Here is the input.
Amino acid sequence: MDLFDTTQIALERALQGTSARQATLAENLANANTPGYVRRDVDFQSSLRAAMGEGKDAVERATWTTVADGSAPLRADGSNVDVEREGASLARAGLEHEALVSVIGARHHILRAAMGIA
Amino acid sequence: MGIFDALDISASGLIAERTRMDVTSQNLANAQSTGYRRQDVVLREAGGTFAGVLGRAIGAGAGQARGVEVAAVVTDEGAQRRVYDPGHPDADAQGYVELPNVNAVTEMTDLISASRAYEANITAMQTAKQMFSKTLELLR
Here is the structure.
């Protein structure tokens, strides 16, 4: 029996996922006034969800990429960045990150309690 | 992607919007200066050059912070305003003075747009900061 189970590994991978997503959304916001800029996003959830069914090694090896969002331009300058939408997604990524950290912290606490060092 | 990349990306956005505000202020300040022409900032995605795109595609540039950069500050070659003012030292033979092609309304909307985008980058920076400090709590 390993110390860290699939759930713990998945939680830690998701933490990396939310960080990558935050950086990508920050980039969209930085380019809010760049003509012709195509917004990007990171979908780490679907790769993690697929890997969860295949066991711990798959979760550890799960990768995701930054993909361009090919939706139609919103503005006359050819950019499809919507500052409000990016802001909302950013808040969401931040809250998800906070939730993940809380759950990981609670699980660490349980582990420490079981080891008698809490 | 390193955890501090997000801060560098947002910082590049702050610099770009700051430059836009500076240039817009300069246009407004020179709205009555004869001989001046309106300046405009051209932004482009940092790392959007051929080498940058290729590097990202083959995974070589994955760790680089990107963001936005000022490609150029260009002069607006639009027609100057002609105002009848025979007493002006720069007036021509017909008594007309060529004033800059600066439109106060355009400049004000640019200023608002730059200032809102600046705020958006600050928000992104704050989210990144909160995420990092929350992660650090795991070490306690």
Q: What stands out?
A: The interface with chain B takes residues 15, 18-20, 22-23, 25-27, 29-35, 37, 83, 86-87, 90-91, 93-94, 97-98, 101, 104-105, 108 of chain A (CB under 8 Å).
